Amino acid sequence: MSSAYVAVGALTAAANGFAAAMDFLRPAWLNEKMTRVRVRRWMLGPLAVLKTAGAVGLLIGIGVPALGVAAAGGLVLFFMSAIAAHIRVRDYASIPTPGAFLLLAAAALVLRLASS
């Protein structure tokens, strides 16, 4: 196992855990962003569950490589979809946020595959 994966995986898990907490708490700034992207408020709960599952999977993936690969891959697909949602409504100014999460998830995926 690579210490680089542990570091990047833990950072990615922490970032997604924070994002999931925000989805559950639904602050006004997040509701405004989601309205702009045409995501209904009821969808925030399931999106938070997916982010939480990805974060937990990355952490368990430290010891169970296949789960780490699955979790990182799922997060990559999740954030590619988020970027597509922003592009769909021409909300280009908000793309850096899911883009940063995508880069973290992609780095975790590459590092987990490299250290398996």
Describe this structure in words.
With 116 residues, the chain is mostly helical. The protein has one domain. The N and C termini lie close together (7 Å). It is 79% helix and 0% strand.
**Model regions low in confidence, pLDDT < 50 over at least 5 residues:** none
> Strand-residue fraction?
under 5%
The number of E-state strands comes to: 0
The averaged pLDDT comes out at 95
Radius of gyration: 14 Å
Number of helices: 5
Q: In sequence order, what are the helices and strands, one letter per element?
A: HHHHH
Give the proportion of residues in helices. Answer: over 70%
Euclidean distance between termini CA atoms: 7 Å
Question: Which structural class do you get from the secondary structure elements?
Answer: mainly alpha
What kind of sheet is the major sheet?
A: none
From the spread of the alpha carbons, the general shape counts as elongated
Question: What's the gist of this structure?
Answer:
By secondary structure, the chain is mainly alpha-helical. It has one domain (3-114). It is built from five helices and no strands.
